[in-house]
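Why do we care about 3D structure at all? Because function follows from shape, and shape follows, mostly, from sequence. That is the central idea of this module. The next example makes it concrete: a single protein chain, its amino acid sequence, and then its structure expressed as tokens.
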Amino acid sequence: MNVTTKLPIMDWADRAQPARPLRIGLVNMPWVRNHTPSIQLGLLKAGLTRYGHTVDVHYFNLDLSARVGTHRYDVFSEIASDRVALLSEWLFTAAAYGRLDDDTEYLDSVDERLFALLREHEVTMETLRELRGTVLPEWIDELAEQIPWTDYDVVGFTSTFEQNLATLALARKLKELYPHIRIMCGGANFDGEMGQEFARRFRFIDYVVSGEGDLIVPVVVAHISADRSPLGLPGVSGWDGDRFVTGGQAPAVKNMDVVPTPDYSDYFAALDRLGRDRALVGKSPVLLYEASRGCWWGEKHHCTFCGLNSLGIAFRSKSPDQVIADLTSLTSQHHVMTVQTVDNIMDMSYLRSMCGEIAERHWDVDLFFEIKANMSRDQLRTLRRAGVRSIQPGVESLSSHVLELMRKGSTMLTNVRLLKWSRYYDFKVIWNILAGFPGESDEDYDQQADLCPSLFHLEPPDALGRLWLERFSPNFDEVDGIYNIRPAAAYRFVYPDPEINLDKIAYFFDYDVDGVVSEPAFERLRKSTDEWNRRWAEGPAPRLDYRRGPDWLTITDTRGERRRLITIRSWSALAYLACDDKPHTAELVARLLESEHGTSVATQRISAFFDECVKQRLMVTENGKYLALALPENKYW
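And the structure:
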């Protein structure tokens, strides 16, 4: 019998006061990245210690990295295509289920391109079988027996993407050996009905927390400390005897300033214990930080492909003063100046406050933020002065029509402008091109393929791929043209259990779709992006720079096979520069030349000049607007 309970609004801090302090172990399992601590567990530790509990965070991902070798570990933690094949998850199936099933059908189902990529990293089929059948089950057994688990009242696991089977493997083993320990699981893999189904099927998990854990986890622990069941608290699901109790979603934090600075002391202690050279091999630690939650754009226009934070999309951010205080504390404590924010999107108010404060302090900080692609040149300069060196601007496409289908709120010109000034200010830009949105056409992709050679001097995309269908995304249940939605085929191999409902636990889905780009048109774009990436990989990166004189421009172009020098004089130079910062129409440029320079030029002459610049790949145009592509040779910071 299933029971759903709802409790009245309560004061979470008061409810979190424990009857006695508990000893709590928090666990970070593979295959998350090894060069960053877990922000989820760092926040939970900081929150729980506020109430007097003793908390240890176990970074078993670091232990496995040291055991199998960092290079091999990185292969399974970094390969993006693994998400649909679930290869990293599959490697833990024998450890999770206590049996080694035949692997032939699964391996036959995996795309050969993934195996080719693995072979590039010297990972063979024998490697996969050895890991799955021997190395990982033995490692789980060692973890369960070598750590003094009996010291803990509660053991909590966080699980996102490829952490789930490793989490289930160790949780099952701990419950078998130490049945008195309360096992608690949370994280993105346990959000919504996914978490409720995992709690229903895997009874060695005592409590599943679905949603944000900041407020509810201390309350759960307080209930345990008083020998009371936390089942039925908002967000908490599990079995109470023969009753299965669900609590829906956990309460969300509304005031981000109450969220503590994450405690990463256990991560750095683990690095010291294992040896950084052994656990990381050439990589340096990167601190994770959360300045905001949710998405201010998604609140109004949820991007159709995005499945992140759908159940907590309301945007909330820390005050600039709190962000500065947190960054000061983290970087001072750990002497690490590379910080990646995990925010879905940057709070634009930080441009007016936090960025200026960091710039004035002259910290040698290396920050990463996800931003909106419509940032201006001035805004990008502000970010760069504040130490932001890497950005993920959500470019996603160079077709305005496809961007409209995505609900991105940007255009081709918006994205090209972002890439242009990002190159000028030396940002590392993380961006992809996505395809497969109902309503797109081959023309959308032919246009992008034709555009790419004009942009060879700008940073190329990291990847080109077709749409992944994710739970919680609008494409999952709102967009016409996507149908026959079913769990990704790999789930039946990762969860070979007839009792589990794959429709409820899957995050990635296979599907059929109508009205999308054909394979030949998609491959034409792939050929263009491959050439773009090849030009950058072989180096030096292509250039399209201008040197400015009193009444002329000299443009150096190395994007093609031969180096070109192009000189533009008189009003033509002024007109070109008028479209430097942002796109303009020829009509507007004519007015600007008249008002700012006293030069009268017919709109038709400007249009003809701009069209010739487009032909020469010196400008791009759309809907009558033109954007200059050449970058200033000098750095006008």
